Amino acid sequence: LAALERQVFDFLGYQWAPILANFLHIIIVILGLFGTIQYRPRYIVVYAIWTAVWVTWNIFIICFYLEVGGLSKDSELLTFNISRHQSWWSENGPGCVRKEASMSGIKGLDGHSYISVIGCALEYRYIEVMHSSFQILIALVGFVYACYVVSVFTEEEDSFDFIGGFDPFPLYHVNEKPTNLLFKQTYLWISPAGFSGMDGMTK
Q1: Strands 97-102, 113-118: parallel, antiparallel or unpaired by DSSP?
Q2: What is the pLDDT of residue 113?
Q3: DSSP secondary structure letter of residue 180
Q4: Which of 30, 68, 75, 81 could disulfide-link to 63, CB 3.0 to 4.6 Å?
Q5: Secondary structure (3-state) at 136
Q6: Is the separation of the CB atoms in 6 and 135 below 8 Å?
Q7: Distance from CA of residue 176 to its chain's centroid?
Q8: Which pTM does this prediction carry?
Q9: How far is residue 132 from each of residues 62, 87, 94, 103, 108, measured CA to CA in Å?
Q10: What does the pLDDT look like over 45-54, one tens digit per residue?
C-alpha cells in the first residue's frame, strides 16, 4: 500500500525513474507474497535480495533531495532529462499556495507564466525524504520476516520424510497385535436336537 501511494504521487510529478523503481518493487512484493502463500522459498529469497536493492535506491533518493555528494534536487535526473518536472509535493505540499504571474513584458517569454509557491508548512524535499525513510523501514522489516519464513520452510523440508511424510513411523509399518488378542473365545453352537437329546438323558 505504501508503494502504491508513492507510485501515485510520482506519476503526478512525472518522476519517471521512481515510477519504474516503484513498479518493479510492487511486482517483487507480489512475488514474495505468492512465495509465502505457496511455500516457495526461492521467491522469498528473491524478495529478500530485492529489499537490499530497494534500501540502496531509497538511500540514493534521500541523498538526492538533501543534495549530498554533489547531487541537486533541481536536476532532471529523476525525469531522465525528458521534462523539467519536479516532485508533485513541490507545488502541492501542506500549506503551499501556488501563484502564477504572466511574463508578457519580457521578450521571448510572451504567453508564458511564472509560477511561485509560497506558504509551504514543510519543504517538499523533506516529504520525499520521509517517504524514502518509511520505505527503508518497511524493507528492513520485510527482510527480517523473509529470512524467518525461509528458515521455517527449510526446517520443515529437512524434517519431512518422503516415504512417511511427517509421520515418525514408516508408511508400511506393521502394527503388532497384543498376545492376549491372539486367544479368542470359541463359541459352541448346539442344535435344538442336541438339547432334546440331553433332556432325554436327564430324564
Answers
A1: antiparallel
A2: 60
A3: G
A4: 68
A5: helix
A6: yes
A7: 50
A8: 0.68
A9: 7, 13, 18, 37, 40
A10: 999 999 999 9
CB neighbour list of residue 58: distance below 8 Å, 6 or more residues apart: 132, 133, 135, 136, 139
Residue in the block written with cell 523473509: 146
- Angle at which helix 16-37 crosses helix 41-65, to 10 degrees, equals 150
Q: Which three cell numbers stand for residue 140?
A: 528492513
Q: What percent of the chain has pLDDT over 70?
A: 70
Q: Is it the case that residue 189 has pLDDT exceeding 50?
A: no
Pull the grid cell for residue 77. Answer: 535526473
Q: Looking at residue 105, what is its pLDDT?
A: 55
Residue 104: all three cell numbers together = 508578457
Q: For residue 98, how many C-alpha atoms fall within 13 Å in the half-sphere facing its CB?
A: 9
* pLDDT surpasses 90 at 160: no
